[in-house]
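Next comes the chain:
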Amino acid sequence: MSAESASQLKKSALGTPGIVFLVVSSAAPLGATLGTAPVAFASSGAGVPGMYLIATAILLLFAVGYATMARYVTNAGGFTAYVSLGLGRRAGQAAAGIGLLAYNCMLAGVSGQFGEFAHDLLARWDLRLPWQVLVLAVLAMVAVLGYLEVDLSSKVLGVLMIAEVLILLVFDIAVIGSGGAQGIDFDAVDPTAVFAKAPGVALLLAFTCYIGFEAATVYGEEARDPRRTVPRATYVAVLLMGAFYAVTIWAIGLAHGSDSAAADAAADPVGFVTAVNTAFVGRPATELMQVLVVTSLFAVLLAVHNTLTRYLFSLGRGGLLPAALGRTHRRFRSPHKASLAQSVFTLLVLSAFMIAGVQPFAQLYPWLVGLGTLAVLLLQATTSAAVIVFFRRQEHRSRWQTLAAPLLGGLGLLLIIALAVANFDVLTGLTGPAAVLLPWLIPLAGALAVLASSWHARRGRPVTLAASQPADPPPSDRELSATPALDTAPEDGRQP
C-alpha cells in the first residue's frame, strides 16, 4: 500500500443518514431522556420541554456557522481543525488536548453506566455477572467494530438508534392520543412555567442530551460529497433531536399531569418515565425499553469510540501523536491503529477505576460525563469564535451565516458554560474541593497539548493539525455547489 493511501480514510463510505446515525447515537436519545427527565422536572416543573426548545435554538445558531465552515474544511480532526484554521495553531493544539479529554471522559463514564444497567438487566433474568466483566465484554465488541469499516458501525448504530427512538414514539403517541393524565395542555411553552423554579438546571440538562451531534465533521473525510453531506447531517441531527426531545419530554409531563410532574419526579426519579410508560403502553413495552436502554448505551460507546479514533488518527497524521496512529487499514480503510490504541487506553483507565473500587453509576458516570460535558461546551463556544474569525478573512457574503448566527450561538453557549460551572455539583454529584478542582483538568489538558507540540517543534517535527489557511482560495457562495470539497489533509497524508 502506498504512503498516500496509507493515511487516507475510506472515501465516500458515508452518506447523510450514516453520519446522522453515528452522531445521534452518541447522544443516546433513550438513555438521555430517562436520565435527565426526572431531574429536570423535579427542578423546573412543567416548563421543561420549553428548555429543550431553547437548547435546540441555541445549537441551531451554532450549527449555522459550524456547517458553513464545513463546506470549506474537510478534516477528521473536527474541533481541532476548525480552531486551528480560525484562531491559530496554538489554540488548535489546546483544542486537541481538550477534545481528547472530553471524549475520553464520555467514553469511560458511559462505560460505567453501561456496566451498572447491564448488570441490573441481567439480574432480572437471574444472570448475575459483575459489572466489570460486562464492561470488558462490551469494550471488546466496540474494539472489533471500531477496527472494521465505518459503514458497518453506521449500520449497527442505525438499527439501535431506530429501535430506541421508536419505543419512545410509541409512548408519545399513546399519551398524546389519550390526552395524558389531565388532558392536553401547553404549559410546556408558557413562559411563566418555562422560567419557573430553577430554569438554569433544566437548560443545562437539556444541553447534555445533545452532546455528540457536533461530531458530524469528524466523518467529513469518509463522507460522500462532504461539502453537502456534513452540513446537511449537522442540521438534520440537531432538528431531529430537538423535535424528538421536545415532544417526548412534553408527553412525559402530560402523562404525569402538569400539576404533578415535579412532585412525581422528586418522589420516584428512577421510575419517573417507566411508570407512566407501563400505564399508557403496557408492561411488555417497559421491559423492552429497559433492554433498549442498554443497547442505547452500547451505541453511545461505539459512536464515541469512533469519534475518538478519528481524533487520534488526525493528531497522528498531524504530528502531535505517534505517526503510526495516522495510518489506515489496507483493506478496511479504517484508522485501525488508532482504534486499537484507544481500546487499550480505555481499558487502562477503566481498570484503574475498577481497582480503586469506584462505583460505576453513582460515581464514575457523573464525574467523568459531567467533566466531559463542560469540556465539549467550551470547545463549541471556542469553535463559534473560530468560525467568526475564519470568515473575516474570506470572501463570503452571508453575514448571517458567518457572523450573526455564530455570535448568537456562541453567546448562548457561554451562558450554558456559566450554568455548568455554577451547577457543577448537579452535573457530577461532587461537592467541596473536588468540585472546584476537577474542572481545572480542562485547561491542564489544553496546556499539556501545547507543551507537547512545542517539544516536537524543538526536535524538528512541528505539529501541523490543520492549515492556517485553506490550501486554495475558498469557493464563493455561487461556486459552492459546483466545486469539490477542500481537504486540509493533502494526499501525501501530511498537513500543509
